[in-house]
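Why does this matter for the project? Reviewers at the last site visit asked to see concrete outputs rather than summary tables. In response, this paragraph embeds two records directly. Each consists of the residue sequence and, immediately after it, the corresponding structure tokens. Nothing has been edited or filtered.
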Amino acid sequence: MWTMIEPFKALEKAEIDALIEAPVLITILVGAADGLLDREERTWTERLMRTRTYTKPKQLQEYYRVVSHNFLGKVDEAMLQLPSDAETRSIILAERLALLNPILSKLDAQTAAHLYKGFRRLAVEAAEASGGFLRFGAVNPQEAKWVKLPMLLEFIMPAEANEPGDSGDYDDSDDGGDGD
């Protein structure tokens, strides 16, 4: 199933598996930073992953189809394999996510930038999914520590990837977010 993801053709299976697992790990890292991955966080991130299967960039739609398949089941399975202590779990997840840096570096710059932006957007969405008033002011201090995914190197969209008249500053999540 993962072999059909065109931008990943040059990667090894373990590297592709790590990229496919990344949204699950990000959801747990940020959503459960306060100790609990609540229903709103679970529902919102699962919906976001499904939405990305038909939004731009088109070259990553298959990636998100694979990621979104049984997404909450993958989250539950990963949670069972991780420590219940939020601080210990967060350190382990951050270390695992940091392993994505050399993998993202192997991809073409545009794909790496799209993935990085999608990972950051997922982190923000997981943090804002519950609490606050209409999801405003919902990021608690534990989530704030991780929401910018400090363990990941920043991958920026190359200027030549922008279409004429396109600022390149689109919102790839199609979720009405601020495009962060």
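We now turn to the second protein, recorded in exactly the same manner.
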Amino acid sequence: MLSRPPRIQLLGLLPAILKPCGPACAQPFTNKSVETLKEEEWRETPEFVRENADRAHHLAERLLRDYGPRIRIEVVGLDSPRGTWLGIRHRVGKGFAVIVDGREVFRNSDDYDPVKQAVDRALMPHESLT
């Protein structure tokens, strides 16, 4: 029996560029280049949102390097309906959080080791089924 890989959710207020449809979707037929839109978004995005994006990016890179296809990474903006629900459910507030397989929540942590240990725990039942 095959099991779906554990889901790792990166939850926070994030730049639109990390979301499935950012500001570029609202202006698909203008003469602005993608680079111009990227620069505009960078200027208009608050510092803490850019920091969240950096955290999400670096964490996702490490997780993918360590686990590859054995996990599913989902980036969720706190300003989305799903993000609002997850934020309330896991008491995230307006910071950044990592939710491992819907069970373990790490709020505003820059320490990778506890997240890695939680992913290892989440993988145990999934890998025993394969």
